[in-house]
C-alpha cells in the first residue's frame, strides 16, 4: 500500500510540475490539456513530407467501405490509401447516386454509415505511424447527400423563404445528421450570385443579391455551429464556390468570367465574407477563371483576401480543379506544375487527390518550399484537434438512426418548403381552392418523386417523398382527384394530351404541374467531376443540375402543347412550376388563372404545395432572382449599375417578375415612414405595416438604398435590410431598420471600402419594383 501511495503522490506532484521529467513522458500532440495550436505544432514537427502531403489529399470516399448484408467495414482500397499516401480526408463517402453507383440496395443507411465511419477511423488511427484520424467531407447543400437523410428545398428555394431564423434551424438539422453518421465537413451553402438563368446550377444558389445571399448563408452557418466545432452536433461548413462562379460567359458551367476587381469586391465577395465572419471554416475554389486567372490558382483570393478576413480555416479545390489548371485552363504544362500553382496560391486541400501527390517530388526538386506545405497541413490538423477527433473519433450508430430524418427534421423540411413557394399570379382570387371541387391534376411533375428533390440528392425511400398529387389527395381524398401525366419533361415518346384534356373536361379546376428536372438516372453519363453530359443524356428528363446549361428557357418536350390544349377546355387552370432555374412563364402569365413556383421543394414539397393551394398555408415566398421574359434580356437583374436601362426595339427591358416579388392571399399596407439620423451614418428607418386583408399571413418588408452621387458608378438600388413579419388579419406593427456605415459604404476606385457623404434615397416596399414608401436624406459629414 505504501508503494501505491508513493506512486499516487508522484502522479499528483507531476500534475503540478509541468516541466518535470515525469510530465515530459506525455507526447505533446496527444495531450488534450494543451491548446490545439501547441498540439498541431508538435505533430507537424514529427511528420515526414509524405505524411504531410497525405493530410492534404481528399480522394473519393464511396469506395472506401465494403458492405456485406447488414455489416460494413473499411475496404482494401482504403487500406492501400492509408499505407501508400497517408490520406487524411475523404469526400462523399456516404454519397449515393448513379455516378457513384450506390443505390438503396448497396448503399448505406444512417446506422451503417456511422459503422463505416467508425471502421475507417479505427483503421486509419491504428495503422498509421502517428495515429491521425481522417476528416470525412460530405455534400450537404440542401440536406446530407446520403440515403435516409432529410431532403430540404434546394438553395434557390431556401432563399425564397427570406427567413434567416428558419434557415438557421435547417443548418442545425443538416449538421446534426452529418455528424451523427460520422461526417465532419458539410459542403454548403452555395453562395454564388446568379445573373444568368441558363447556368445549370442556379438551383444550388441563393439568387442574384449579395445581401440576401450573405444574410441567409450566414444564418445557415450559425445553425451548423458558427465555427464552434467542439460541439459534436456541429460541422465545418465549406462555402461554394470562390468566386463569381455563377456569372460565367454564355451561362456555361465553369467558363471564364469577365468582371473587374472593384465589382468583385462590391458584389461577389461580400456574401462569403459575411459567412466566414459567421463561422465558416472552409472555402472551395471554383472551376472558372476571373479576368484570366483560374480560381484554383488565384493567390490574391486564397491568400490575400482570406488573410484580410482573418480566415482561420482551410481551402479546398473543387473536384479535380487543380488538374484542370493543366487540362482545361492550360496555364500549367504538367500535373506537377498545376499542383505547385494551386499550393502556392494558398489552396490547402486537393479534392480528387490526383495533383498534390506530385508536391513531394516538387519539394525535393526545390520547386516549392516545404513551408507552404506546412502551412496548409497546419490549417487542416488544427481543426482536427479542435473538433476533438484525436480523443473522440467515433460515433454511435444507434444515435444516427434517431437523429437522421427524425420527425422534427421532416416537419422542418415541410416548413422550409412551405415558405419557399411563391405565388406569382392569382387572378380573380381563384386561390385558395374550394376543397369540394373536382380537380384534374395533370403534368410531368405532378407525381414524380425525384423531380421534387433537385440535384445533389441521394436515392430515397419512395414512401418518404410526397408529390403534388399525393399532397392534394391527402387533403381532399382520392375521389375528388383525377390524374393524367400528359407528357414528360423532355422525352417526347410519352404523349397523353388527349387523355389529359378528357380529365380536365370532367373536372371543375385544373392543377397543371410542369417545369424541369434535376433527377439523375442511369441513362445519363457523367464526367469525372460528377457533372452530367447533356449531349449523351438521351431520353432523360434532366434539363437542370450541374452540367445541364440551357440555350433557351422554354419548357421542353411537349409541355407547352399540353398547357395550350388544357386551356382550350375552358376550365380554370392553376399552373405550378417545379424547376431548378427561372423558366419561360410568359404564356402562363397571360393565360393561367394562377401561377406558382415551388423550385425543387424537397421531400415534403408535395404536402407544402397542397397546403398553399387549399389555404392551409398563406404563401409567403419571394423571388430571390428575377424571372426574365426572354433570353435576349439576360442578364436581367434589379440592382444593375447606373444608368437606368432602356427598352429593346421589340421588348421591354423589365423582367416578367422582379427580385423580391411574391403575392399573398391577403393585402398589406405600408405607411408612416419616419427616418431618424442618430449619427452621420447611423440612420433608423421606421414605418407601419398593416395586414388589411382577410387572411393571417407573412409579409417580407424590404429596404432598398440608392446612392444618388458617388465617386464610382453605383447600383440603381440595392437591398440593405429585410424582415419577414407575421401579422394576423387587421393587425399592424411598427418595423424598424437600422443602417450603419457598412450599409452606406462603397468600394472606391482604389478598391477600398469607404463611406462618402451625400444624398441617398431610402425605399421601402414589398419588392424591388413595388416600392411603397420613399424618403431622401442628406449626410453632410462623417
Automatic annotation (TrEMBL):
<keyword id="KW-0732">Signal</keyword>
<dbReference type="InterPro" id="IPR036962">
    <property type="entry name" value="Glyco_hydro_3_N_sf"/>
</dbReference>
<dbReference type="InterPro" id="IPR051915">
    <property type="entry name" value="Cellulose_Degrad_GH3"/>
</dbReference>
<feature type="domain" description="Fibronectin type III-like">
    <location>
        <begin position="699"/>
        <end position="768"/>
    </location>
</feature>
<dbReference type="Pfam" id="PF01915">
    <property type="entry name" value="Glyco_hydro_3_C"/>
</dbReference>
<dbReference type="InterPro" id="IPR017853">
    <property type="entry name" value="GH"/>
</dbReference>
<dbReference type="InterPro" id="IPR001764">
    <property type="entry name" value="Glyco_hydro_3_N"/>
</dbReference>
<feature type="signal peptide">
    <location>
        <begin position="1"/>
        <end position="23"/>
    </location>
</feature>
<dbReference type="GO" id="GO:0008422">
    <property type="term" value="F:beta-glucosidase activity"/>
</dbReference>
<dbReference type="InterPro" id="IPR013783">
    <property type="entry name" value="Ig-like_fold"/>
</dbReference>
<dbReference type="InterPro" id="IPR036881">
    <property type="entry name" value="Glyco_hydro_3_C_sf"/>
</dbReference>
<dbReference type="GO" id="GO:0009251">
    <property type="term" value="P:glucan catabolic process"/>
</dbReference>
<dbReference type="InterPro" id="IPR026891">
    <property type="entry name" value="Fn3-like"/>
</dbReference>
<dbReference type="InterPro" id="IPR002772">
    <property type="entry name" value="Glyco_hydro_3_C"/>
</dbReference>
<comment type="similarity">
    <text>Belongs to the glycosyl hydrolase 3 family.</text>
</comment>
<keyword id="KW-0378">Hydrolase</keyword>
<dbReference type="Pfam" id="PF14310">
    <property type="entry name" value="Fn3-like"/>
</dbReference>
<dbReference type="Pfam" id="PF00933">
    <property type="entry name" value="Glyco_hydro_3"/>
</dbReference>
<protein>
    <submittedName>
        <fullName>Beta-glucosidase</fullName>
    </submittedName>
</protein>
Amino acid at each position: 500500500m505504501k508503494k501505491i501511495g508513493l506512486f499516487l503522490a508522484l502522479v499528483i506532484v507531476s500534475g503540478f510540475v509541468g516541466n518535470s521529467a515525469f510530465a515530459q513522458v506525455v507526447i505533446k500532440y496527444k495531450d488534450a490539456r494543451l491548446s490545439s495550436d501547441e498540439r498541431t505544432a508538435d505533430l507537424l514537427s514529427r511528420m515526414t513530407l509524405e505524411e504531410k502531403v497525405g493530410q492534404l489529399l481528399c480522394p473519393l470516399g464511396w469506395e472506401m467501405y465494403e458492405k456485406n448484408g447488414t455489416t460494413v467495414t473499411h475496404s482494401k482500397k482504403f487500406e492501400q490509401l492509408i499505407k501508400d499516401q497517408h490520406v487524411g480526408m475523404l469526400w462523399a463517402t456516404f454519397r449515393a447516386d448513379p455516378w457513384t453507383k450506390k443505390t438503396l440496395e448497396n448503399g448505406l443507411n444512417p446506422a451503417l454509415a456511422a459503422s463505416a465511419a467508425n471502421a475507417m477511423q479505427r483503421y486509419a488511427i491504428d495503422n498509421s505511424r502517428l495515429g491521425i484520424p481522417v476528416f470525412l467531407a460530405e455534400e450537404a447543400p440542401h440536406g446530407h447527400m446520403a440515403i435516409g437523410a432529410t431532403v430540404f428545398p434546394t438553395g434557390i428555394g431556401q432563399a425564397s423563404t427570406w427567413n434567416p431564423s428558419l434557415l438557421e434551424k435547417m443548418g442545425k438539422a443538416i449538421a446534426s445528421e452529418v455528424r451523427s453518421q460520422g461526417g465532419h465537413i458539410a459542403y454548403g451553402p452555395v453562395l454564388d450570385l446568379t445573373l444568368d438563368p441558363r447556368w445549370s446550377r442556379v438551383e444550388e444558389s441563393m439568387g442574384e443579391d449579395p445581401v440576401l445571399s450573405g444574410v441567409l448563408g450566414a444564418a445557415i452557418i450559425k445553425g451548423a455551429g458558427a465555427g464552434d466545432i467542439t460541439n459534436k452536433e456541429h460541422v465545418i461548413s465549406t462555402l461554394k464556390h470562390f468566386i463569381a462562379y455563377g456569372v460565367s460567359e454564355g451561362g456555361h458551367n465553369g467558363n471564364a468570367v469577365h468582371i473587374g476587381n472593384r465589382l468583385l469586391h462590391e458584389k461577389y465577395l461580400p456574401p462569403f465574407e459575411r459567412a466566414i465572419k459567421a463561422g465558416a471554416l472552409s472555402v472551395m475554389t471554383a472551376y472558372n477563371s476571373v479576368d484570366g486567372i483560374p480560381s484554383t490558382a488565384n493567390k490574391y483570393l486564397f491568400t490575400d483576401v482570406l488573410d484580410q478576413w482573418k480566415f482561420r480555416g482551410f481551402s479546398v479545390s473543387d473536384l479535380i480543379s487543380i488538374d484542370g489548371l493543366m487540362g482545361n485552363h492550360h496555364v500549367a504544362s504538367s500535373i506537377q506544375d498545376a499542383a505547385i500553382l494551386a499550393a502556392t496560391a494558398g489552396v490547402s486541400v486537393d479534392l480528387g487527390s490526383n495533383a498534390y501527390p506530385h508536391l513531394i517530388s516538387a519539394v525535393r526538386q526545390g520547386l516549392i518550399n516545404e513551408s507552404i506545405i506546412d502551412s496548409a497541413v497546419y490549417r487542416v490538423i488544427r481543426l482536427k484537434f479542435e473538433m476533438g477527433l484525436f480523443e473522440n473519433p467515433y460515433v454511435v450508430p444507434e444515435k444516427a438512426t434517431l437523429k437522421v430524418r427524425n420527425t422534427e427534421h421532416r416537419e422542418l423540411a415541410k416548413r422550409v418548403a412551405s415558405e419557399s413557394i411563391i405565388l406569382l399570379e392569382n387572378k380573380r382570387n381563384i386561390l385558395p381552392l374550394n376543397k369540394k371541387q373536382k380537380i384534374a391534376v395533370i403534368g410531368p411533375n405532378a407525381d414524380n418523386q425525384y423531380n421534387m428533390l433537385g440535384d445533389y440528392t441521394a436515392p430515397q425511400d419512395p414512401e418518404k417523398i410526397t408529390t403534388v398529387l399525393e399532397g392534394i389527395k391527402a387533403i381532399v381524398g382520392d375521389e375528388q382527384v383525377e390524374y393524367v401525366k400528359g407528357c414528360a419533361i423532355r422525352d417526347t415518346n410519352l404523349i397523353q394530351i388527349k387523355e389529359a384534356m378528357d380529365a380536365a373536361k370532367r373536372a371543375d379546376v385544373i392543377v397543371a404541374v410542369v417545369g424541369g428536372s434535376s433527377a439523375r438516372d442511369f441513362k445519363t453519363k457523367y464526367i469525372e467531376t460528377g457533372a452530367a453530359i447533356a449531349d449523351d443524356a438521351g431520353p432523360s428528363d434532366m434539363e437542370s443540375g450541374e452540367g445541364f446549361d440551357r440555350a433557351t428557357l422554354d419548357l421542353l418536350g411537349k409541355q407547352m402543347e399540353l398547357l395550350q390544349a388544357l386551356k382550350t377546355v375552358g376550365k380554370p387552370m392553376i399552373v405550378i412550376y417545379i424547376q431548378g432555374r427561372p423558366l419561360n412563364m410568359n404564356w402562363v402569365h397571360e393565360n393561367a388563372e394562377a401561377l406558382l413556383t415551388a423550385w425543387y421543394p424537397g421531400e415534403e414539397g408535395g404536402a407544402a404545395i397542397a397546403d398553399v393551394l387549399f389555404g392551409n398555408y398563406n404563401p409567403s415566398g419571394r423571388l430571390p432572382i428575377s424571372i426574365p421574359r426572354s433570353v435576349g434580356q439576360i442578364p436581367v437583374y434589379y440592382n444593375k449599375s447606373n444608368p437606368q436601362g432602356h427598352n429593346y426595339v421589340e421588348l421591354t427591358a423589365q423582367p416578367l417578375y422582379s427580385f423580391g416579388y411574391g403575392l399573398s392571399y391577403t393585402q398589406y399596407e405600408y405607411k408612416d415612414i419616419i427616418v431618424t439620423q442618430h449619427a452621420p451614418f447611423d440612420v433608423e428607418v421606421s414605418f407601419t405595416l398593416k395586414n388589411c386583408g382577410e387572411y393571417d399571413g407573412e409579409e417580407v418588408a424590404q429596404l432598398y438604398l440608392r446612392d444618388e452621387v458617388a465617386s464610382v458608378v453605383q447600383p440603381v438600388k440595392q437591398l440593405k435590410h429585410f424582415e419577414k413579419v407575421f401579422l394576423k388579419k387587421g393587425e399592424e406593427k411598427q418595423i424598424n431598420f437600422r443602417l450603419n456605415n457598412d450599409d452606406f459604404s462603397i468600394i472606391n476606385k482604389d478598391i477600398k471600402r469607404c463611406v462618402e457623404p451625400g444624398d441617398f434615397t431610402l425605399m421601402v416596399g414589398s419588392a424591388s419594383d413595388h416600392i411603397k414608401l420613399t424618403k431622401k436624406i442628406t449626410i453632410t459629414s462623417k
